[in-house]
Amino acid sequence: MIDDGTGLFTIGELARSTGLTVRTIRYWSDEGVLTPVTRSAGGYRLYDAESAARLELIRTLRELGLGLADVRRVLTGERTVAEVAAAHVAALDAQIRSLRVTRAVLSSVARRGSTAEEMTLMNNLARLSAAERRRILQEFVDEMFHGLDLADPDIRERMRTSALDLPEDPTPEQVDAWVELAEMVRDPEFRAQMRQAAEFNAADRAHETPRGASMWFFKRLIELVGRAREQGIAPESPEADEVLGDLLGDTDRAAVLERMKATHNVRLARYRELMAVLKGATLSAHEEEFAWVVAALEVRTAS
């Protein structure tokens, strides 16, 4: 405090009492967040006790990472500290997520020995916004089911809500899975395969067919074939006839074989595997059961 009885402080005195530098306090004054109450006869800026308290608040807000624009809004009463803090938390969350993705991408690049081009592609795909990731999936599903009103609604909804996204803290393996999936669902050949599978699903249904019937068939297949495999029944054995009979009844088996080959192939199996990696789940696509049925049908429709 200057010794003139006014109770005012110079910048130097504020600096000594707060531990801040004169340069910092002068900068905040120049930016309009710490306005001096008056000036001395020599033109020096002077501050009062309220200015000192204001300075402590400014320092606290700045140490928490708030920009001067937000600090100014708090000091002028445009926004409360709570409002600014909430906005800053959201910004920090986004920054933390970005850093986690960066870490996962770099870990994947180091592990795979990726080229500069591969690293750029991986980084660009991994950094797509959540909205952009949803758009990619939406376009994929829309093309898959366009005009197929009879396709099972449960299948359609399951595809639409699939987690084609990166977790909050992705592992390098999940970054790899996302990049591969993003490329896969934009591949015209794969999209055509998925479209064919949807067309077969629609062709198997009528308007009165209850939703979820397709899922019931899959569950029934897994149950019957799983039991047969546990009993050691081979697809080509005579005992397999009874399993197929229980599963398919008198359905045209050549048509079933065609549909199963369209819906259970290597690429679709890889799609389901990648989805499981993204979800952090153990793969349970039951490819062995479907392969058993395909093999059993091939033996019986070869002639």
General description of the model:
- Helix content is 68%, strand content 2%.
- It contains 15 helices and three strands.
- The chain has helices at residues 11-18, 22-30, 49-63, 68-76, 81-112, 116-126, 130-145, 153-160, 172-185, 188-203, 213-230, 239-248, 253-263, 266-279, 287-301; strands spanning 9-10, 38-39, 45-47.
- It has a three-stranded antiparallel beta sheet.
- A hairpin with a 5-residue loop joins strand 2 (38-39) and strand 3 (45-47).
- 20% of the residues are buried.
- The mean pLDDT is 80.
Provide a compact summary of the structure.
The protein has 303 residues and is mostly helical. The chain is built from 15 helices and 3 strands.
Secondary structure elements and pairings:
Blueprint: E1 9-10, H1 11-18, H2 22-30, E2 38-39, E3 45-47, H3 49-63, H4 68-76, H5 81-112, H6 116-126, H7 130-145, H8 153-160, H9 172-185, H10 188-203, H11 213-230, H12 239-248, H13 253-263, H14 266-279, H15 287-301
Antiparallel strand pairs: 1-3, 2-3
Helix pairs in contact: 5-6, 5-9, 6-9, 7-10, 9-14, 11-12, 11-15, 13-15
Observed structural traits:
mainly alpha, about 300 residues, about 70% helix
